[in-house]
Amino acid sequence: MKTTINHYSANAEHYYSLYQSISASSVHGYLEQALANITPSTALDVGAGSGRDANWLAAKGWQVTATEPAEALLKLAKQHSNKKVSWCNAALPALANLATVHKYKHQHQHQHFDLILLSAVWMHLPIDDRPAAINRLSELLSNTGKMYISLRFGPSDPERPMYPVSYEELQALAAENGLTARNLNPVPSKDGLKRSDVEWVTVELVNAGSK
């Protein structure tokens, strides 16, 4: 992950412009539908990049916590951020710097989120780190919350390594953490940046037994 994070930071302006060149609503059409009848509350955008998706959710009324471990990209995103977005430098699998919510003077409680989004993040996570990542994310998801993870299918990039992904792997990891997975597009969708060799699948994860 360190190589990938350093690459994104060193090329922050390029990736900021690239991600801003396509709208969140065109990338996340499935999420637009899913959120249509949900009252906005707390959301977590993991690997938020340029802040495009975090700002989009904030404009819909969500109180968003956005994490981005690439320092220079984080700095750019914060400069153009919606006031409802709180930013922190945190990386999977631990998300160690994620803020806690202080309830009492001498106690604190880890925040839970009704919406968690990982857009174009999962493929960067080494396979051995994924069980710990899902475990951490399941802890952060509220009992009735929904998590959305996009899976990228296509060639890797030596400057930002990408590892094989599959719906079946994610489904198994979800089950081990009390989550139910649902493939939202069994027929992979085309790449929003028009790359002919890249396709995407989005997986929805919810707590088992929740409606």
What would the average pLDDT be, to the nearest integer?
88
Low-confidence stretches: 101-108
Please count the beta strands (DSSP E, at least 2 residues each).
10
Shape: globular
What amount of the residues lies in strands?
25-35%
What is the helix content? 25-40%
Q: Which oligomeric state applies? A: single chain
Describe the structure.
The protein has 8 helices and 10 strands. With 211 residues, the protein is α/β, with parallel strands linked by helices. The strands form 2 sheets. Strands 1, 2, 3, 6, 7, 8, 9 and 10 form an 8-stranded mixed beta sheet that branches. Strands 4-5 form a two-stranded antiparallel sheet. Strand 2 (63-67), helix 6 (71-79) and strand 3 (85-88) form a beta-alpha-beta unit.
Detail the topology: elements first, then pairings.
Layout: H1 2-10, H2 12-20, H3 24-27, H4 29-34, E1 42-46, H5 52-59, E2 63-67, H6 71-79, E3 85-88, E4 101-104, E5 107-109, E6 113-118, H7 130-140, E7 141-153, H8 167-176, E8 179-183, E9 189-190, E10 199-207
Parallel strand pairs: 1-2, 1-6, 2-3, 6-7
Antiparallel strand pairs: 4-5, 7-10, 8-10, 9-10
Helix pairs in contact: 1-6, 2-6
